[in-house]
Model the fold of this input.
Amino acid sequence: MKKLPVDVHDFEALITGDHVYVDKTQYIHKMATEGTYYFLSRPRRFGKTLLVSTLEHLFKGDKELFAGLWIENSDWDWTPHPVLKIDFSEISAYSPEVLRKSVIEKLHRLGESTGVEVKSELLRNCFSDLIIDVYEKHQRRIAILIDEYDQPLISHLGKGEVELEIAQKNRDVLREFYGVLKGGNVGKALRFVFLTGISKFARVSIFSELNNLDDLSMQDPYSALLGYTDEELWRYFEPYIRQLSKRLKAPVEETLHDIRTWYNGYRFSDLEVKVYNPFSVAKLLKQGKFQNYWFDTATPAFLVNLIKEKKYPIPDIENLQLTETSFSTYDLDRLDLEPLLFQTGYITIRGFDGVRYRLSYPNQEVKNAFLSYLYKSLVEIPRTTIKEQYTLLHEFLAQEKLEQFIETANAILAAIPYEHIGGQDEHYYHTVFYLMLSASGVLVLTEPLTSIGRIDMEVHFPDKVYIVELKCNQSAEQAIAQIKAKKYFEKHLHGGRKILLLGINFSTEERRITEWRVEEVMES
Done:
């Protein structure tokens, strides 16, 4: 079997090292032959750097590396072109002055590597001189590839006003740099321009001068450019999937279902094309167990800070609806949480009615890990031993030990200092309860829509489903009565699972659950 592509971001190293390469060259061919200026945003660990490296070797004409791939037998012109590649994750950007100096130094080094001398110390002149001089020396148009284009900005987010001001000044430096690519004097020298990163800034923000970029981020033909489809997963990784199935002592179909539940679900366009996170898939098949691989590679601290700052209703994240314009309004001067969550990969498209996009968590890995992180960050409990009791909630619900479940939830609530919980309303208790359950690994759906109303929560297990209604300063009886009156349970009838109605009442005065009641729905 070929080696698994874990943390291999260089195309040449991947191919010569006999690693699995999921062939995306048909998409690349389409892109490189139909246009010149492109932009793509995707979450981290989705293969952006490998894509940039693949483009580099393609334009350099390294045909031998593409043996056996789709593009080898296409009409691609293998004539070599000069390539200027810049990775902003390798450039210091802790102040606008350092960023400007670091970029200029990088441009000088690129000049040396391509056999030209860049003399200017002015950013705009330095970049334009480099492009023109390389073009004139080689008499071939140039491919410019820019990876992590937004790193000098997003590395400063969520760290306070001082850091935000640095990001805003860095934006001005980047605007000047990218503006060179639109200039008429360099246009004739460019064969291909590709920028990629995590975020998609509004064009008036960073690309005000480079306004001819073709944004592929949500275009249907490129929905599977990065990530793996179901078909690709099986075609390229079948031996490893069968190996994992044997290790888990589970049928192959069950193993595929679990991989899909944990790591699939990312959708980037109107088309109903879903892709797997490639990093998580490779890690799973190498280590042989289901874990939060992608999430653990970085923590979304700036997202948590935004949630705190805006007092965002966390349960609402599961049922967001946005219009198309909402995805392209991201700017440092107005950080909207919803497009940020989408671009960073914490939510994805679940449906589109022609006007509005419905968004939710892409899969189990992201939802459980993100909500667990939010729970630990937002629920203010000084005593760690109490805070970690949330891990028991899954077990108690699975075994229908409701008394222990309520006792554990109350122990957690009791540990929250009065200054955080005192005077809070029903929404606060709903949020804490939701975070506790989700962090425990339970499959929680908040406010699923039925034909006649919205349920507070559903909690799903293979053999049962809980319909949960939360009340504040009322009674558990009233909660159960509402479930019955609205018939929230009806959609689960004849589904083969036990249906349990759970009514819970919080007292804001006592700061705990004071009443609870559970009933089983008996099918007639």
